[in-house]
Amino acid sequence: MTAGADTSAAPAGLSAAQAALRLAQDGPNSLPGSEPRPLWRIALGVLLEPMFLMLLVAGGLYLALGSAAEATFLLVSVFAVIALALAQERKTQRALEALRDLSAPRALVLRDGQELRIASREVVRGDLLVLHEGDRIAADAVLLEGELSADESLLTGEAATQDKLPGQPAQEAARPGADAHSALFASTVVTAGRGLALVQATGERTAVGRIGLALAATVQPASQLQRSSRRVVRVMAGGGLALAALLVLTAWLWDGRPALDSLLLGIALAMAILPEEIPVVLTVFLALGAWRLSRQHVLTRRVQAVEALGAITVLAVDKTGTLTLNRMQVAELRAGPHAFREQDGGELPEPLHELAELAALATPADPFDPMEKAIHAFAQRRLPGTGRLHADWTAQQLYPLSRELLAMTHVFAPPGAARVVATKGAPEAIAALCRLEGAQLEAVRAQVQEMAQHGLRVLGVARGEWDGPELPAGQHEFHLRFLGLVALADPPRPEVPAAIAACRRAGIRVLMMTGDHPATARAIAQRVGLGEGAGLLTGQEIDALDDAALAQRLVGVAICARLAPEHKLRLVRALQAAGETVGMTGDGVNDAPALKAADVGVAMGQRGTDVAREAADLVLLDDSFASIVVAVRQGRHIDDNIAAALRFIFAVHVPVIALALLPVLLHWPALLLPAQIVLLELVIDPACALLFEAEPPAPDLMERPPRAGDQSPFAGANLAWGLLEGVGLAAVLAAGCAWLVAQHWADAQVRSTAFVALVGGLFLLMLARRPGASQARNTWFAPLLAAVVAVLVLVLGVPLLRELLGFAPPSWPSAAAAGAMLAAIGLWLLALRRLDFSGPPARAPARPG
Predict the structure, then answer these.
(1) 318 assigned to active site
(2) How many Å apart are CA 350 and CA 353, to the nearest integer?
(3) Fewest beta carbons less than 10 Å away: which of 33, 651, 663, 688?
(4) What positions does the domain Cation-transporting P-type ATPase N-terminal occupy (predicted)?
(5) Of residues 318, 617, 623, 640, which has the active-site annotation?
(6) 277-297+637-699+710-841 sits in which CATH class?
């Protein structure tokens, strides 16, 4: 793809009109496989569902029997249900597409001379990309200005980052592995530096597009809930079809019924057994849960993560920006006997000018980190007449902070003078570089301890000169002079203490992760409510422990200080090895492996990098710890509601199966026909998808331990309790029907009485299965009840519908018999509710801390 006129693009970038024209010409900057499913494919999937195929077969059989009215009713019902399913599927897909659009990578471009952040799919050829550390590059481009490093392992398989220098746009987009030091590739990551790049190819024309890598098409492994549901559905479907085939043979050969009538009975039984509501429940509950979370400033990138929220036992969270406001400001400076506190006001003492100046010089000119921004702001405000700090000095080299040495150094070349070395970092690292010993080292340690105990983040600052012709390979070779300490403050978020207290009551352990000094970390921990005696572990101690020892050492630890990003992955794996379900927050490029490894990875929406957001399951749009607690609460709420819905489904199927099976075994008239089962589906599906999903949360939702990680709503105890309720309903209905048959009631009258009692029993079951039934009102219950009553009035009161469904006209004896059955069902459910030991899904034991 040639760059065309883009090769002479001005610094102002494209105009809005030019960008719109390019977007129309080339299409969106999206990769193969990211398009939404077409409606016809959704329709085909619905038509191939076993339930709908059975309904079509039943309609054909009614036609073969000469019952055109019954066939017409069934087939019209089939297409009505298909239309409803299509509408629901399309609505769910649109909701998920909207969530994907919100969570899609974004790009910073220059248009009309202004920086503009747009969705990556809107990037076009000729756009000027403004790139910073942590950005995922939106399209293939060439670097025009700046210097940066990029991780191209996605394309090349090489772990080493590639340094990029400005170059000229090529006539053809570069290919991975080519000698292209200025070429940048879509979906690769800026790991360091910043720059301005000209887009040369988008979408399928990029290197990633050419080899068919599409993030949107990545297939996520099935979750435990999905695996459990598929296993249960397969078992029930296979058993139902086998039992239906046996029933057909029994009715035909043993009961002497006609072959077509026997086949209709078998289809009715199979329809009664098939648990088609289960996929509906899981899809709707999880999708709507993601939608509800988005209204609470939590964006769900993977819907399956909603399921894991209810099982979280440990929340490993960053201090800065999550527990604190991320509003760093310089609070105090100390250099020997001289000190300055920002809260005291006044002018910065002259002896501290050099300390403030060198701290700013040791910081990138346009920093990403809030702490470094605060240092620059302080220097600009407190150093009179500086303007841009030494604008005539040439920056020659940057020695970045590393895991081995928590310090960074900038080397400058002033005009006509020796090179100036500005260094800042962890006080212990700066003291080591300055070779401090004895009383001087102890004095620095005492000052650091005192400042850290007030919750301040402390940095050491040093200065040096270099006269040699070549700069050294590492920072240790410089001869540095210790200048003093700079302390920064970041107050806790006001809502955090209450949120941590809520986690403690819910049996969730909070683990604070920070790169700060241990004393600073402990001071913040006390202020947010993590406890006076909370255990503390440092990055240096982590390095000295093997995996088994680390897992054991983490017991009771609430603070991890002096961490490098690489430590987080070890912490997550150690916690998981100890049986914990881990939710972890992160915001940097190096946090991505840990976010992927965590059971629920949570990225920061405001300060996080694109890489962290793409690796995470959830994105906090407000970066607040309280939003994580809201998400956990929503996950537990969904757990409860799915468990209640599944108990209801299993309870419902037992009496339906009994009414389809008993007539053949006991030589009764058919009690449930396929058309009547269609009516029941119109009750069961809305009940599961609407009533249980909208159920208010139980008041003790965050007062009990987390769900055990290996448990699910398909646990044996949960389903067995539903089956027990269903057995009671089936026994009452069977006993009632046996009495009516013994009294020689007409077939249609027995059928209509049993059907009314069954529908009424389902509503009693809904009341019994509501998790929060005694605490709050469900707004869907009354409308659903009214709709079902209206349908019953129609099918029993309108002669045509009544005859189609095989019902008798309503009568007082029939109403009294149905009422008696309902009373017995109510007593059975009330007795079970008093003995109910199923409760919510199984919970893990309470955890310390």
Answers:
(1) yes
(2) 5
(3) 33
(4) 6-67
(5) 318
(6) mainly alpha
